[in-house]
Amino acid sequence: ARPCPQDHVNRQFVAECPNALWVSDFTYVSTWQGFVYVAFIVDVFARFIVGWK
User: Fold this and answer.
1) Is position 10 within any domain?
2) pLDDT tens for each residue of 17-39
3) Do 21 and 9 meet the contact criterion of CB atoms below 8 Å apart?
4) Where are the bilayer-spanning segments (predicted)?
C-alpha cells in the first residue's frame, strides 16, 4: 500500500491573505445525458471559487 500524502496545512484551513492557500474539491452532477464530474479550486481566504473544470 502507498503511504498517505503529507498534510501540508495540518488541517488548519485558514489563510491570512488572498492566494496564500487554495484547496480543491470535486463532485458529480446529474445532467440529461448522465453524470459529469466537476472539480473546483477555492481560495481559502476569500472562500471564492478561483477555477473549475
Assistant:
1) no
2) 999 999 999 999 999 999 999 99
3) yes
4) 32-50
Domain count along the chain = 1
Torsion from C-alpha of 5, 42, 26, 13, nearest 10 degrees: 40
Sign of CA dihedral 28, 14, 45, 23: negative
Cell 498517505, residue located:
4
- Between CA 48 and CA 24 the distance in angstroms is 11
Q: What is the pTM of this model?
A: 0.71
Look-up: residue for cell 488541517? 11
- In a domain? residue 37: yes
Q: Range of 48's domain?
A: 22-52
What would the grid cell of residue 52 be? 473549475
